[in-house]
Amino acid sequence: MALSKLLAASLIVSFLLLHLGEAYESQEAPQQTIEDSVNNKKIDCSGACSVRCSKASRQRMCKRACGTCCQRCNCVPPGTSGNQKLCPCYYNQTTHGGRRKCP
């Protein structure tokens, strides 16, 4: 008799834990989809690269490289130079020679 009560109690506890775990996951899912939709918005690469390359001596080349990096990373650092670590993907793009690709 004690064994059957123990078995019944353990089944009830297991069911409650499983149910609480599913309820917690269902609360987390909408928040993740909102974050994903915010992160998946495409930025205006031509406008962002125009600002980024406005003081470059070779603007055409700068805009071409910036545009490629922006398309790949969906991010362009603020300002006309520096700040590359604010966009890790942008910062990590390199040429075949190992130099930084993105202006």
Using brief descriptors, characterize the structure shown.
single chain, 103 residues, mainly alpha, 64% helix, GASA
Question: What this model shows, in words?
Answer:
This protein is rod-shaped. The relative contact order is 0.10. With 103 residues, the protein is mainly α. It has a domain at 45-92. The N and C termini lie far apart (76 Å). Helix 2 (45-52) packs across helix 3. The protein is built from 4 helices and no strands. The chain has helices spanning 2-39, 45-52, 59-73, 88-92. Helix content is 64%, strand content 0%. This is Snakin-2. It holds the Pfam family GASA. Keywords: Signal. Belongs to the GASA family.
Write down the Rg.
26 Å
Q: What general form does the structure show?
A: rod-shaped
How large is the share of residues in beta strands?
Answer: under 5%
Mean pLDDT: 79
Poorly predicted runs: 28-38
Write the H/E string, N to C: HHHH
Helix content: 55-70%
Helix-and-strand structural type: mainly alpha
Q: Please report the number of helical segments.
A: 4
Our measurement of the CA-to-CA distance between the termini, rounded to an integer number of angstroms, reads 76 Å
* Biggest beta sheet attributes: none
Give the total of beta strands. 0
Protein name: Snakin-2
InterPro entries: GASA (IPR003854)
Keywords: Signal
Family: Belongs to the GASA family.
